[in-house]
## 1
Amino acid sequence: MSWNVSNAITPSRALAWVLIGFVLTINVYRAATQSITHDEALTYLLFMRGNLLDVFAYTGNQNHVLQALLSKLVISILPTNPFTLRLPVLAAATLYCVAAAKISNRLFDNAWVALASVALLTLNPYVLDFLSAARGYGLMLGFVLLATYLLLPGMNSDRTRAIAGVLLGLAVAATTVSIFPVIGILVACAVYPMAVRQIDDRRKGRDDFGYRGRAGRLPAVGEPDVPREERRLLHRRGERPRMVCKPRLCQRTPLRTEHQNAF
């Protein structure tokens, strides 16, 4: 699979960033004008109105610890109102929208398809609700999508993998529901390299044990055409068959024996 790495500015990509700006403006407007919801008010009364340690308390209510902690830090500096409670989620909304644009641009060569992908990821009504309410779901969406972008093939250096791991941990801290997408991402990261390696081996004419031949093409002169059962045995032993190659003749010799004269 090829990955689009072009950063050229096209009309459709410019429209994608305009769309992101529009979505972020909507989120800010909703956060500033909508009245506080039941969940937000209950979280504030139970976990943020007292001292800092109350944020980590468990009273049977679904407490989104990371969101409560960040909102507690914000209202300790700024006046307490619904908008200031939602400021951490608005920051996560920015991460989410930027990651959506980056992922779409990298996955799709067609810039108009990438624009449609950004629209589908950002204009979902439920996503818009999560990105403007003082709950942990908006934080989870931002952290998970940004970690997904950092783990795309071609991006996953040691540094980006470390950052992605921190982001996935923060997503779990935001809400425990994110454990399911986090596990899915980790499984995909483990399976993808093996799948790509297997596909490459098949394209190169190699079988499951690294031998060329019957998996994709006839063996060339000097390559062993070894039966599958014997290949399996050799693979377990970490050995390869030795060859006796004569002009226009290639014979496989028994293992651990001296070369015999073919004539």
Note: The mean pLDDT is 77.
## 2
Amino acid sequence: MAIDVLSATLLSRNAGVDAKTATVGTVINAANTMELDLTGIKADKLMLLVKNTEGTTNVVTVAAGEFSQASLGALAVTVAATSGEQAIVIDSARFKRASDGKISLSFEAGMTGSVSAFVLP
């Protein structure tokens, strides 16, 4: 299985970010895993913006990581069909892998769309 790379946009307090550019996102290939690399980035809370362009509802799953809250398990979120969007706020303590600093996402078969990631201040 191939791995697609997702980059995060760092948000700052009392500052703006070009929302059009920041929400373009990484294209979903449901056959691949998508990884958000947080190596060297201090990130406690993140927001994922998942857009579903496929004609049926689909599920995106954020895999459990290796830190203190990993015992809570993976998080599966349903995204509405065709033009559905979900903003998902996650804690790195639950989803980040200690071994390589990455967060892993997987998608229901057939899902199309995009994912954007934001590091919250």
Note: The first helix runs from residue 19 to 22.
